[in-house]
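Field reference: sequence -> structure
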Amino acid sequence: VAYNESLDWGVLRYGNVGISGVNYKPSIPVEEEILAAIEKIMSIESVTEKAIKYMLYAMRTQLFWDGNKRTGLICANKILIQHGKGVLTIPEDQLEEFNERLSAFYESNDYAKIDQFLYEKCLFGIEYS
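Structure field:
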């Protein structure tokens, strides 16, 4: 039976991965560097910006063997919900543009290619009447 690294749940990735559709190859995560980057993101004052930046950082860094987009989105929603700032979800009619913008972000590491899109098209709160 072949060993499957993707079954190492919750363990930082210790080998190389590729992301389909892009040339960008994330480096192998180093725990100290990740902790410093996350600490910097968590110091952002705006809850919404913090959530979006963390999600995109986690997706691009590919911290784990599998589930990086799901995990990034769940963590962003934990931050948002904890502070009463709504939820982040990618509506089906925005999925194609999201994937295009995410691919551009992977290649460039330029948050401006995607963060405003997420804020305007993918962030939802509760409307109280």
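Note: Residues 47-61 form the longest helix (15 residues).
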